[in-house]
Amino acid sequence: MNNIIEIFSYPLLINEYKGSLVEEITFLNSIEYEINGDNSYKSKDTYILNNINLSKINGFINNALKEYQNILKANQKFYITQSWLNKNPINSKHPEHIHPNSFISGVFYFRLNEKHPPIQFSKTQFDMLKLSYSEWNKYNCEVFTPNISTGSLILFPSSLRHSVSLNTSNDVRVSLSFNTFIKDKLGSKEDLTEVIL
């Protein structure tokens, strides 16, 4: 009998917001942006989830963070540190990156269509040998693109490399990104790893 054991997995949580986003999208149209490189823009407000107009989305995200904490079976709680909007007009992209000084990062999509480039996650470890494969699966792929739509929220480890390829559509792609950190202490006194936050 063959047993496949998955080890060192990265949990990627996708939750769907079921409420209306009409008021939030109206609010997004009033936001000021600044250039962020590669022809993309980020909101000048980098604590955007503190705005009362996004309180329902903030609550939805915080509930998902509790779910993620439960998936990890972590004793510590997560809280949102910074949050900002990304705007990708035609010929803009987000190069591959990670989110330093954060434990869990996330992206929420207020409006998404099939013409928008999706977020892609890249394998963190590099294979020493390059094999050829008859088909891609979760054991041999180097890039993963989740199936998302309007109202999707993705939570992932901040150390996971991700990117958004070039937007070749005439439709502006808008997303909300955020970082988190940990409440409570880390490590243990006995193991000499204790950090009190």
From the structure above, extract its key features.
about 200 residues; alpha+beta; seven-stranded antiparallel β-sheet; four-stranded antiparallel β-sheet; 2 helices; about 15% helix; about 30% strand
What is the radius of gyration computed over CA atoms, rounded to a whole number of angstroms?
Answer: 18 Å
Number of distinct helices: 2
Question: Helical amount among residues, as a percent range?
Answer: 10-25%
Order of helices and strands: EHEEHEEEEEEEE
Mean pLDDT: 92
Please mark out the parts with pLDDT under 50 across 5 or more consecutive residues, or reply none. none
Tell me what portion of residues adopts beta-strand conformation.
25-35%
Strand tally is 11
Spatial order of the strands in the main sheet?
A: 1-9-6-11-4-3-2
Largest sheet: 7 strands, antiparallel
Class inferred from helices and paired strands: alpha+beta
Terminus-to-terminus distance = 47 Å
Shape: globular
What is the topological layout?
Elements: E1 13-16, H1 22-28, E2 33-37, E3 40-43, H2 55-72, E4 78-88, E5 94-97, E6 104-111, E7 119-122, E8 143-144, E9 152-157, E10 162-164, E11 173-182
Antiparallel strand pairs: 1-9, 2-3, 3-4, 4-11, 5-10, 6-9, 6-11, 7-8, 7-10
